[in-house]
Fold this sequence. Notes:
It is built from 16 helices and ten strands. It is of the alpha+beta class. The strands form two sheets. Strands 2-3-4-5-1-8-10-9 form an eight-stranded antiparallel beta sheet. A two-stranded antiparallel ribbon has the order 6-7. Helix 2 (20-33) crosses helix 3 (41-51) and helix 5 runs parallel beside helix 8. Magnesium ion (MG) binds at residues 219, 322.
Amino acid sequence: MTSIESKRVQYRKYLERAGVIDALSKALIKLYEEQNKPEDAIRFVRKFMCESCPDDAQYDVMKNDLEEAKTHISKLEQELERLRGQIKKSPEEYQELTVEGYKSLIDDEENVNSLLRKYLTPELLEEYMLVTTPAPVDAYLYDCAVAGFQHHDKPVGIYAADADSYDVFNKLFDPIIKDYHGQMDNESDVLQKDPDFGNVDEIENLDPERKYILSARIRLARNIEGLPFFPKLTEKQFIEVEEKVRSATETMDGELIGSYLTMADIDAETQAEMVKRHILFQRGDEQLTTAGCYRFWPTGRGVYHNPAETFLIWVNRQDHVHIMSMAQCGDLGDVYNRLVNGLSELEKTLTFARHPRYGNLTACPTNLGTSLRASVHVRLPLLSKDPDRLLALAEELQLQVRSTDGGELSTVEDGVMDISNKRKLGFTEFELVKTLQDGVVALINAEEELEIAGQEG
Ligand code: ADP
Ligand code: MG
């Protein structure tokens, strides 16, 4: 193509894109359709074209209308979601959905690794399909497994819809729990012993010189006894959880004193900024959406925190509450002490669901037991250059390594990682925090050795 031709083509494309061709064609068609052809054809065309475009005032009105319509649509969508959440499915509908969901899961030959797929046999499906947990929750197997039926690539694929789900569907949950938590040969009736926070004074500042650790955090998940878990919480119950937690926090003392913010009152910009500072949560992934975690959002969601942002409670993120203690340094002892105090304050007013075999009950079976995740954000630039060694070390120390945004280790920036206890069930709270303490100290020592080797070599 010559350059003239190509310029012509480009110009033509531009005229089309800008709507000029369309507007001119319409004017010409209008003139063609006119019975009494005007003397001044140019004036006719000009008038027609001006008629069809709004002036500034009209444009403003239209822009306003559009904004209003968008707001209205989003309200309607929320309302629709609310109403959908109220529709009760008949047993026949549950049966049909369960059979369909199971079929799609086992027919998928590419994603075969979920624990749901591994342990939900056709016989169990048949046995459990029409069974429900006690009224008024009436959770079906489908309510627990829907996320796994739809998202075949997820490692587990099941949530408990209420505390009873763990017993009513026990032949499915129990092997999944034992498989996930590495308790395959454990024949004991009790997988999680009574809570034991041990001697808090044995947990220390792991990095007094502030050389490696940017922050430390310990969180616990809890669900209020007698209320269903997120897959079956009603709109009223989301609010009930929030009210109960709000009033339980009113008696907090000393450094735990703070205030509660409901999500609906935090504007989008502030939310984003708080998420970035690790003190607020947002909606999670598709799997949780399918499981029903974000029904009625933002109703009943919120955060309690003290002014220093070192003690926080997230309400209805997934479990009813996530209780967190944090510090912008490596003082794990300080963090642990505050967490234990905060929990015992809450327990004065709230009773949390516990299971004789599994300990603290959480919706996701991976959090059962202590539900405790103690973590540090730590900078280990030399170690992180050798991921194989790092991961082998972490494995040995019973630690889990992630990137600080929850992603894969490959996205680690500046050698900063999130290192936490790997196990949650089968050990006491104290043992798990001590594991993190010992492990992080060992990793920092390994980093220091590499520093020295670098200086010498
Ligand atoms: P959890 O399941 O323990 O709540 P997530 O990976 O979902 O953990 O993290 C929740 C939030 O907490 C994220 O913003 C994450 O960056 C933050 N977080 C986790 N550990 C730490 C830590 N040691 N220091 C600071 N922020 C942290
Ligand atoms: Mg949390």
